[in-house]
Amino acid sequence: MVGAVSDIYKALADPTRRVILDELVERDGQTLFELCTRLTMKHDVASSRQAISQHLDVLEAAGLVTRRREGRYTFHHLDTSPLREVATRWPTTP
Amino acid sequence: MPRITITSVFVDDQTTALAFYTDVLGFVPKDDVPMGEHRWLTVVSPDQPDGPELLLEPSEHPAVGPYRAALVADGIPCTSFGVDDVVAEHARLTAAGVVFTQPPTTMGPVTTAVLDDTCGNLVQIASFAA
Q1: How confident is the model at residue B56 (pLDDT cuts 50, 70, 90)?
Q2: Nearest to A34 among B69, B72, B75 (CB)
Q3: Do the strands B28-35 and B6-11 form a parallel or antiparallel pair, or are they unpaired?
Q4: Nearest neighbour of A41 by CB, restricted to B69, B75, B108
C-alpha cells in the first residue's frame, strides 16, 4: 500500500502525534478522554480535544491508529504494521 | 456565599439508578419524595450523611440523549467521585460486574478510572497520592 506508507511520514512528523502513539504503546485501547487527559497531565500538551481528535484522524488515515466502536464507547488502538514498510525499504544494519 | 449542597446526574431509570448508586457504588439513600411521575431522589456518602447530595434526575428531556451519547462516545465522565484508593475500588467494582472504560491510570499526583454507571453515564473516580 504505497498510498498508506506515504502518509506515515506526515503522520509521524508531528510531535503531538508521536506522543499519542507513545501513550497507546503504554496502554492500547483508550477513549478520547483518556488520551486527552494523558497528553495534558503527562506531556503538558495544551491542544483542545478537537485538535487531538484531528490528530487521531491523521493517524487513522495513515493506518497507525484504528477506532473501535464498542457499544456506546469508542476506543483507539495502535497499529504499527504500516511501519514495517519503512524497515523493509531501508533495512537497519545489524 | 453559596455552598454546594446538591449536584445531579441524569439517569435513565430512577429505581435502577438507586440500586446501582447504593448497592454497587456504596452511597446511602437520603431523600425520596414523590414528584409527579418521578421522584426527588438523592443519595449521600455514608460517612457524610449531611454532606453534598447526589440527585438522581430523570433523563427524559429530549436534549439529554444526544448530550450524553456524545460524551459517552468520547469517554467523557459526567462527574467525578473521590475515593481513598482507585486501584482497590476498581478491583472491588470490577468484581461486582461494573464495566470500566478506563482502568486505574496514574497521572502526576492523581489516579483516575472511569466506569459506566449503567444509567447512561460515565463516572470518574479519583484519588490523590498521599
Answers
A1: very high
A2: B75
A3: unpaired
A4: B108
pLDDT value, residue A1: 45
Fill in the DSSP letter of residue B39.
E
pLDDT score, position A92? 84
Q: What is the CA radius of gyration of chain B?
A: 15
Question: Which one of 2.40.30.30, 3.10.180.10, 3.30.1540.10, 1.10.287.1040 gives the CATH number of domain B6-128?
Answer: 3.10.180.10
- What CATH number does domain A2-82 carry, 3.40.640.10, 1.10.10.10, 1.10.10.2840, 3.55.40.10? 1.10.10.10
| ipTM of the prediction | 0.90
User: Does residue A80 surpass a pLDDT of 80?
Assistant: yes
The whole-number pLDDT of residue A6 equals: 60
Q: How far apart are CA A8 and CA A82, in angstroms?
A: 7
All three cell numbers of B50, joined, read 449531611
Give A28's contacts in chain B (Cβ within 8 Å). Answer: none
| Residues in chain B within 8 Å Cβ distance of A37 | 105, 107, 112
